[in-house]
Design a protein that fits this description.
Structural class: alpha+beta
Strand order of the largest sheet: 5-4-7-2-1-13-17-15
Shape: globular
Number of helices: 15
Low-confidence stretches: 1-21
Distance between the termini: 64 Å
Largest sheet: 8 strands, mixed
Helix content: 25-40%
Radius of gyration: 27 Å
């Protein structure tokens, strides 16, 4: 009996795996599965690995001097089964060099000499470096001896760079306020399906990093405050006692603590009064570090409970120009984000000790930090901050390759922004903003580039990059949520997140994890949404009276398996709504014949997709003659 049961279970698993292979899979991805690095059940394979680094970084920034000097020691661990004869270094700030390849134009204030390597040692031996010829955002560096599997190499690098006057994701906010990101040379990701990540940074698509351990020392003049990824190790050495006390109080406070106000800053006695102070930060198993520096930014702080089981709190801090009214609300808005995301969607406790909202110009996320621009619309400021904080989970809790598959992180942040927005401003306002800000421009743009499959690598996209990364994948997540229901959808999502937290998932890991977590073969749905050139356009062809109600004949011109409502008005003036989940398209994604059961006579009917906006609403209506 037991043997028969086990055999039956095994056969079911084999059948399920065979069905799961229906999805198109590129040859390099297939090889990763064949090597056992990934598994068809959605989990990392028995042979999964990822490389890791220990980064000990020290930088000195002395505004208004724009030259930042740095020194780092990287211990890089090769956990792969491969012998590495060279390393690919990422030098992101070389995007600022004149002549660098980039998607957009660059003004004079954007241009700098890029990363200037002063000294490069490999296991103590000097490596020749020519800053004129080694000027790209990727630079292969040959090793003196091969780095064997499960061995490590030490890199000792001294470098400097100029802070860009034109601030975007990083750069000068004003003459004494800098936001530093991607500022240190790092070893590129070497992974199980692509080898070295050598995609050039073009100032459009985003980033892909290993999970590393960091110690970061930031030396600045007195009266400058530093905010950074990680946990400040030496507050008593860099802050005067009163301000350290306020900071410590904020870690257990629901109310906003004004650690440093405009009036405090004017006194110039917040920091230790050494000529220079070194602020030390630590972060473990994170994918990047970012830094904000200013001598005149307000500093607000509080905290929120993010894990009810343990009572753990996460700090929420904000650094901003005093005249920016929206940022005076940033800490409380951020507390709401941390708590809501932890308790609702995705419903995973915020995984880091803190979050800092820094006023800049980017509207961009970093581990434990967001660099957001000022706006006079306080609600829109909260909306943007919600989106950036939501990125904590994708790509930072999950090590997403944003350069290649941006929909795996931007699509989720877009989804969470609508979900949390409904709790903040109401469902109608959240939906209207979502439709106008995320969907409208795509659905009414018939350009070929906008209908490329979502699975198209982001690195190969230009015209359709934004909509393929944000709105379209977000709609797919909402469609699946509608079809599975909240409880099962969350169970499947948590299966995916549990499988790949702290690792590097690829789209097929998402598809397979959702199949496993839901207990369903959803490949028909994933094929429809991710591997097609579809869009949204339903055609209500005809409505005929039938036994028990009315037959609705609906053509799916666009092709996407979307949920929709049939809203009917009866001859007596009453109205009724019949909701249809995407499952109605499972057997035939182009034509649907549906019986709406009713005993009353229908006068008019309309198809309403809600957030699933229709490209041509003229064919969505029917009226009895």
């Amino acid at each position: 009996m037991q043997k028969s049961f086990i055999l039956s279970a095994f056969m079911c698993l084999v059948l399920w795996q065979a069905q799961a292979q229906e999805l198109y899979m590129p040859r390099d991805i297939k090889r990763a599965y064949e090597k056992g690095a990934h598994s068809m059940d959605g989990k990392p394979g028995k042979n999964y690995w990822e490389n890791h680094g220990h980064y000990n970084i020290s930088i000195t920034a002395l505004p208004p001097d724009r030259t930042v000097k740095g020194h780092e020691v990287i211990t890089y661990f090769n956990n792969s089964p491969d012998t590495l004869r060279r390393l690919n270094m990422k030098l992101i700030l070389n995007i600022h060099r004149p002549g660098a390849a980039r998607f957009g134009n660059a003004g004079d204030d954007y241009l700098t000499p890029g990363v200037q390597i002063d000294n490069f040692l490999i296991n103590g031996t000097k490596k020749d470096w020519n800053n004129k010829t080694m000027a790209a955002t990727n630079q292969m560096v040959g090793l003196l001896k091969p780095l064997m599997p499960h061995d490590s190499v030490s890199l000792d690098i001294t470098w400097h760079f100029e802070v860009s006057k034109q601030s975007g994701r990083e750069g000068m906010i004003d003459s004494t306020t800098y936001y530093l990101a991607y500022f240190y040379p790092r070893v590129s990701v070497y992974d199980d399906y692509n080898g070295w990540d050598t995609l050039p940074f073009l100032d459009a698509q985003e980033f892909y990093n290993d999970f590393n351990d960091y110690t970061l020392n930031v030396t600045v003049p007195k009266n400058y405050i530093v905010w950074a990824t990680g946990t400040l190790q030496n507050p008593s050495q860099v802050l005067q006692p009163e301000y350290e006390k306020r900071l410590q109080e904020s870690f257990t406070s629901d109310s906003t603590i004004h650690v440093a106000t405009k009036e405090d800053l004017a006194k110039k006695n917040i920091t230790a009064q050494n000529d220079q102070n070194t602020w030390t930060w630590k972060a473990t198993n994170v994918s990047d570090m970012a830094v904000g520096i200013s001598d005149h930014y307000d500093w607000d702080a509080a905290s929120a409970v993010v894990d009810d089981a343990t009572g753990r709190r996460a700090a929420m801090q904000s650094a901003f120009n005093d005249r920016s009214a929206d940022f005076h609300h940033a800490v409380q808005a951020g507390r709401n984000s941390l708590s809501w995301l932890s308790h609702n969607w995705p419903g995973v406790p915020y995984p880091f000790p803190k979050m800092t909202s820094f006023e800049g110009f980017a509207d961009m996320e970093y581990p434990m930090m967001v660099n957001d621009s000022h706006t006079d619309d306080i609600k829109f400021a909260q909306f943007v901050q919600d989106h950036e904080i939501a990125h904590t989970y994708f790509p930072f809790y999950m090590g997403i390759n944003e350069s290649r598959y941006a929909f795996m992180d931007e699509g989720w942040a877009t989804t969470f922004e609508r979900l949390i927005g409904a709790s903040e401003v109401g469902q109608e306002k959240a939906d209207n903003l979502y439709k106008q800000f995320r969907i409208n421009r795509w659905i009414h743009d018939p350009a070929t580039a906008e209908d490329l499959p979502i699975i198209t690598p982001s690195s190969e996209l230009r015209g359709g990059y934004g909509n393929n990364s944000y709105g379209k994948p977000s709609l797919s997540y909402f469609a699946l949520k509608d079809m599975l229901g909240d409880e099962l959808f969350k169970k499947a999502l948590h299966t995916y997140m549990d499988n790949w937290n702290g690792k590097h998932p690829i789209p097929w890991d998402y598809f397979n994890s959702m199949n496993s977590g839901s207990g369903q073969d959803l490949n028909w749905f994933f094929n429809n949404w991710f591997f097609s050139n579809y869009y949204i356009d339903l055609d209500l062809q005809k409505v005929t009276k039938a036994r028990g109600g009315y037959d609705f004949s609906i053509k799916n011109i666009g092709g996407f398996a979307v949920p929709f409502d049939i809203k009917v008005t009866y001859t007596d003036g009453a109205t009724e709504t019949f909701h249809q989940t995407p499952v109605v398209w499972k057997n035939d994604q182009r034509q649907l014949n549906l019986l709406v059961k009713t005993k009353k006579d229908i006068q008019t009917a309309v198809l309403d997709g809600g957030i699933f906006m229709d490209a041509d609403e003229r064919n969505n209506k029917w009226a009895a003659k």
